[in-house]
Design goal:
Catalyzes the irreversible transfer of a propylamine group from the amino donor S-adenosylmethioninamine (decarboxy-AdoMet) to putrescine (1,4-diaminobutane) to yield spermidine. This is Polyamine aminopropyltransferase. By secondary structure, the chain is an alpha/beta fold. The chain folds into 2 domains: 26-255, Growth Hormone, Chain: A; 301-524, Rossmann fold (3-Layer(aba) Sandwich), CATH 3.40.50.150. The chain has helices at 26-59, 62-83, 91-119, 130-160, 165-219, 226-248, 250-262, 303-311, 331-337, 352-360, 362-367, 384-389, 417-426, 444-456, 512-524, and strands at 266-271, 276-280, 289-292, 295-299, 321-326, 344-348, 377-380, 396-402, 427-436, 460-467, 484-491. The longest helix has 55 residues, at 165-219.
Length: 540
């Protein structure tokens, strides 16, 4: 790509040796190189955060995904930096080609990850480790390309104006770290909320290729031959074209992928600021399913079994004042409100967007019996842990914890000893706390860790299990529905009696015999020796 200098007089240095022939003053040229370092660093960090965010959404366990992405990427950056030493004598052309490739790979990484997830099912069989393999592959490729930037940019800085190596390194890394700061703040506060995961990565790729191409073709074009300039210009325009086309088609692609994931009857897909909420079915006799961040949270064909098992045993006893933690869909609230002697229900839900859907969506509000229209209900939009820290002491007869499974990293603190200590403080004498602790058959150790954590918080739990119905023919996403649910009913005063309130509303799917069988089944599956989980030592 560099012009041949075989015909140059003997002893004539090649054009990449010594000061560059710049179209601007060296001071201006040095500023432009450092500005490019700034932009490329911001783009590189956006790629990293994009991979972490999308992997956490698709795979779960955000701590693990962040560790995998960052560790693999940092390792690859070291390898890329070593490999780029071979390109130092062609720093300008190498850097331009590198940025075009990085923009293409990084910009399309989110699109590719989501496409493979959406169109290859639930990662069964040969695809069982598909998302992790693809995540590592993109982390490795992007890390290699980012690492290769450093020696090439160092060479370009020195060619603009020769200075001592220490000063050049200081300038380079100052611009790099400030750019990383800007990219790190722009992703969660600007790009993700306003553009979404796919468009933000594509736009970042476009900025990346424009920055790299403009620097080389504008500032260092005299280092390149005519053919090299045309090749680089064509490559940059092609990458820009690919990213632009992908951006224009992103909405259509997202809709097609969403239908591939959730089925053809998606009615509502809304990002609330806390999570993505997708509602499917609910019309034409099809059951309503609620997905939160891609995970089936409410299965319409089985939701009543879950919510009746969660609520009714806890209301066996005094229940004038009830606190519901989570449960923004209003379905646990529906069961609580069936008791006429409940005087007040406080709902603490972090996602008021989900509460809004539960109020206004015809199918969901019909399913929850318009629970949020009941004057006994008072809603607070807050994190459950933070809210409990200021909750009135000894004021609730029943606390219903209808929160995401403990196996999700974001939920770990809501299943900690500290959290249950705060919930215990909010219970009135004789009050009960009921906890959904995930599927017992699929994650028994998580379930018994919750049980041990309740005991460590000074509570006396009773475990029980409720089986789901056969979901084999329930449609798209049925394979993700739990086959059972594990619950723990606990009290601070004594071990509670598992049963149903005498004279209370009769559940449609739950009987005293089923509760007794569920208690025995849970005890049979006991995992001894599970340690409690705390904020500083999470066990899930």
């Amino acid at each position: 790509m560099i012009e041949s200098h075989a015909s140059a007089p003997p002893g004539t240095p090649p054009p990449w040796v010594g000061p560059a022939r710049l179209p601007v003053r060296p001071t201006t040229g040095r500023f432009l190189v450092l500005a490019c370092v700034f932009v490329c660093a911001a783009c590189g960090l956006v790629y990293e955060l994009e991979l972490v965010a999308l992997a956490s959404y698709l795979i779960g366990d955000s701590v693990t995904q962040a560790s995998v992405v960052l560790s693999v990427m940092v390792f690859a950056m070291g390898v890329g930096s070593l490999a780029a030493k071979r390109l130092r004598h062609r720093a300008a052309a190498g850097f331009a080609a590198l940025e075009a490739l990085l923009a293409l790979v990084g910009g399309c990484s989110a699109l590719a990850l989501y496409a493979v997830f959406a169109f290859t099912g639930d990662w069964g069989g040969i695809w069982a480790n598909g998302p992790r393999v693809l995540l590592v592959a993109f982390s490795l490729a992007i890390g290699l390309l980012i690492g290769a930037e450093v020696p090439l940019l160092m060479e370009l800085i020195q060619r603009v104006r020769r200075q001592d190596p220490g000063g050049a390194v200081a300038d380079l890394f100052a611009a790099d770290y400030v750019g990383a700061l800007v990219g790190g703040l722009a992703f969660p506060f600007l790009l993700l909320p306003f553009l979404g995961q796919l468009t933000s990565s594509l736009l970042t790729g476009a900025v990346n290729v424009v920055a790299g191409g403009s620097l080389v073709l504008g500032l260092f074009h005299r280092d390149l031959g005519r053919r090299a300039r045309w090749v680089l210009l064509t490559a940059n325009v092609t990458v820009l074209g690919v990213l632009a086309c992908a951006t224009l088609l992103a909405d259509d692609f997202e809709q097609a992928a969403r239908h591939a994931v959730y089925g053809d009857d998606v009615r509502v897909a809304q990002r609330t600021g806390v999570q993505e909420v997708v509602l499917t079915g609910g019309t034409g006799g099809r059951p309503l399913d609620v997905y939160l961040d891609g995970r089936l949270r409410v299965g319409g064909h089985d939701e009543r079994r879950y919510h009746e098992a969660l609520v009714h045993p806890a209301l066996h006893g005094r229940h004038a004042r009830v606190l519901v933690l989570g449960g923004g869909d209003g379905l646990a609230l529906r069961e609580v409100l069936r008791y006429p002697d409940v005087h007040r229900v406080d709902v603490v839900e972090a996602d008021l967007g989900l509460v809004g859907l539960a109020r206004t969506d015809p199918a969901l509000s019909r399913l929850n019996d318009h629970a949020y229209g009941d004057p006994r209900v008072h809603v607070t939009g807050a994190d459950a842990f933070a809210w409990l820290r200021g909750a009135p002491v000894a004021s609730y007869d029943v606390v219903v914890s209808d929160l995401p499974d403990p196996g999700l990293t974001d939920s770990t603190k809501l299943y900690s000893q500290e959290f249950y200590g705060l919930a215990r403080r909010a219970l009135a004498p004789g009050g009960r706390l009921v906890v959904h602790a995930g599927p017992l058959s699929a994650r028994p150790r998580d379930f018994w860790t919750v049980e041990a954590t309740l005991r460590a918080a000074g509570l006396h739990p009773v475990p029980y299990q409720v089986l789901g119905t056969d979901t084999a023919a329930a449609g798209k996403g049925a394979s993700r529905a739990p086959r059972d649910w594990g619950f723990l009913l606990a009290s601070a005063d004594r071990t509670p009696v598992l049963g149903l309130a005498p004279g209370g509303p009769a559940p449609r799917t739950l009987t005293p015999a089923a509760l007794a069988a569920g208690e025995a089944a849970a005890e049979d599956a006991r995992v001894p020796g599970a340690p409690p989980s705390t904020l500083v030592h999470p066990r899930y």
